[in-house]
Design a protein that fits this description.
Largest sheet: 7 strands, parallel
Protein name: Glycosyltransferase 52 family protein
Shape: globular
Organism: Salinivibrio kushneri
Radius of gyration: 20 Å
Strand order of the largest sheet: 3-2-1-4-5-8-9
């Protein structure tokens, strides 16, 4: 049996591609449901239970109770056998480590959860960092629910990366995800038109701890809209709050597009033509470069504003990958 742990719509697309690429049989999907309205809608649009032999779902709430319940259901399915390949999109996440601790696994395949791969490869995988987590009360509860806690997890030996990004490593084997099966399924077409509006990818975590403030973000989008002639089609991040959405929708020269699919598929599904695409270290910028090689794609960089070490790593990677930087 093969186990796929998926926590986002983009991860689900990568899981489908990995299933085709590795030609796996007897596949279990361990799906963590979305908790935002847009996330739920996108998940519902792309999720097909017929793609899987077994589907185990859980919520994001009460993880200490619900994750062990899901693990128990998976154990009933595999009946004491080893998992041939464990596929997941978050290398250093607690859920991932807990699954690893409670199953015998022959091989790991780490696929993308956005740009997280760009950071986790050098930070955790190539440094062979040991994962540690000690929470006495939660660990006692896990044992009561029949689950072995993950207090210390060693680096994975039989690990492989399946990624859209052009990455190199002397530590792990890397397989390239070109989304070839996805492109074929959705009848991929070129949506570039020099006379079309500009696409603008909304940023995640606006107003959240560690994210950009709502006021500065609204001002940034507003100033960008004033500088364009053909208008902007704004694609919100699936976690965007209602307050941000309402403010963006009132900006002059902006068309607020409520996506029902991940952006890569939304453009194809709705046949949205764009003259170029702007974003801020967004995964969709990179995937769009794979789907639409003729479309100019730009990375907006705030002048005089320091980025976090991870965001700076992504910025440099994008620049080296040929995505042009624009100060904004």
């Amino acid at each position: 049996m093969n186990l796929f742990l998926v926590t986002s719509p983009f991860q689900y697309l990568c899981a489908l591609e990995a299933k085709k690429h590795y030609k796996t049989k007897k596949n279990i999907l361990f799906l963590v449901d979305q908790n935002s309205t847009r996330g739920i809608e996108q998940q519902g649009k792309i999720f097909n239970p017929c793609e899987w032999d077994h589907v185990i779902t859980t919520t994001r709430k009460n993880r200490t109770i619900n994750i062990p319940k899901a693990i128990k259901k998976i154990k009933k399915i595999i009946k004491g056998d080893k998992i041939d390949t464990f596929f997941y999109g978050e290398y250093n996440a607690w859920r991932t480590k807990l699954v690893v601790e409670n199953f015998r696994i022959k091989k790991d395949v780490y696929f993308d959860d956005g740009t997280l791969t760009v950071c986790e490869l050098p930070e955790f995988i190539e440094t062979k960092m040991t994962y540690s987590r000690n929470r006495l009360f939660q660990d006692i509860l896990l044992r009561l629910y029949g689950c072995k806690p993950t207090t210390r997890s060693l680096p994975r030996e039989n690990l492989e990366l399946f990624t859209i990004f052009d990455l190199n490593s002397n530590i792990v084997n890397i397989e390239k995800n070109t989304f070839s099966h996805l492109k074929a399924h959705y009848n991929h077409i070129d949506l570039f038109s020099e006379h079309a509006p500009i696409g603008f990818i909304g940023q995640g975590a606006v107003g959240h701890k560690g994210g950009q403030s709502v006021s500065s973000y609204i001002e940034r989008v507003s100033q960008f809209a004033k500088s364009t002639k053909n208008g902007i089609v704004y694609f919100p991040h699936r976690t965007e709050s209602n307050d941000v959405a309402e403010a963006i929708a009132t900006i002059e020269n902006v068309t607020y597009h409520r996506s029902t699919l991940p952006l890569e598929l939304e453009l194809i599904d709705k046949k949205i033509q764009l003259s170029c695409l702007y974003g801020m270290n967004s995964t969709a910028q990179y995937t769009a470069s794979l789907f639409y090689p003729n479309m100019p794609i730009y990375n907006l960089i705030p002048p005089g504003e320091s980025l976090s070490p991870r965001q700076e790593r992504i910025r440099i990677f994008y620049k080296e990958s040929g995505i042009e930087e624009v100060l904004s």
